[in-house]
Amino acid sequence: MLAQKELPAANGAVKAVELYPRVSIVVPALNEQENLAYMLPRIPAWAYEVILVDGRSVDRTVEVARQVLPRVTVVTQDGHGKGDAMRCGFAAATGDVIVMLDADGSADPAEIPAFVGALLAGADLAKGTRFAQGGGSADISLFRNLGNWAFTKATRLLFRTRYTDLCYGYNAFWRDILPVLHLDAPGFEIETQLNLRALRARLRVVEVPSYEGRRIFGRTHLRATADGWRVARALITERCREAVFEPALRATRQTSGHP
Question: pLDDT of 52-96, one tens digit each?
């Protein structure tokens, strides 16, 4: 449910006012000490909690995170891969909304209000897109761009959707949709799985234009060919999978205080 705060009314009585939802920011990180020093302080101060999922880094990732953002919650990843890291973060989150934010500095924390705003306007999932008007990328290579274009085209044909960007990690959603999604992807394909399972579950998905900057320090953990095959496999799996839909979700969410 949404957080509430008691404020004095004009007549001296106390009234409860509904505030914005409690927003949990989940940041998976593996050897990202330099990038975290730049990125974490830019997260809005009103965020309810920031959860850093450490993939057993061998540098000062955890130490730097605690130095630049003392309120950060650090979770050690159980397994390997981005998908596993995200699930560890989702399990630790206690807010109403979860925002997925990469640690490399390519995603701008200043865009978080736009994602949360889309949820408050009625979306179940606000998925970032670099290819709608207002979005863009300074980081995507020609090879990755072609791959994402092909996967997005295939998704539009197979799932009859109007998605413009399938493989982008900047997303936000209400935490209570997680049981419906049954996310189990181990790697980067978790972003594809999230988008497709939300679609198959008949959830309300809204694309939010987003600008992807360049990784600030270090090299990407993405392996274009190997992770591309993972995305292709996820597409095939989801196409063959029975639709997941739980009508009870609507009634549950309507009583929890948000759309």
Answer: 999 999 999 999 999 999 999 999 998 999 999 999 999 999 999
**Fold of the domain spanning 21-254:** Spore Coat Polysaccharide Biosynthesis Protein SpsA; Chain A (3.90.550)
How many CB atoms within 10 Å of residue 3?
14
DSSP summary character for residue 6? E
Residue 17 structure tokens: 């006012």
User: Which residues have C-beta within 8 Å of that of residue 69, sequence separation ≥ 6?
Assistant: 40, 41, 43, 50
Torsional class of 205: left (φ above 0), alpha (ψ -120 to 50), beta (otherwise): beta
CA distances from 12 to 6, 7, 8, 9 (A): 12, 10, 6, 5
Alpha-carbon separation of residue 72 from 25, 52, 128, 184 (angstroms):
10, 7, 24, 25
pTM above 0.70, yes or no: yes
**C-alpha to C-alpha distance for 57 and 221, rounded to whole angstroms:** 13
Q: Count of residues for the chain? A: 259
Instruction: Using the structure block, give the residue that is written with the tokens 């990180």.
Output: 29
Query: What is the separation, in whole angstroms, between the first and last Cα of the chain?
Result: 10
- Paired sense of beta strands 211-212 and 4-8, if any: unpaired
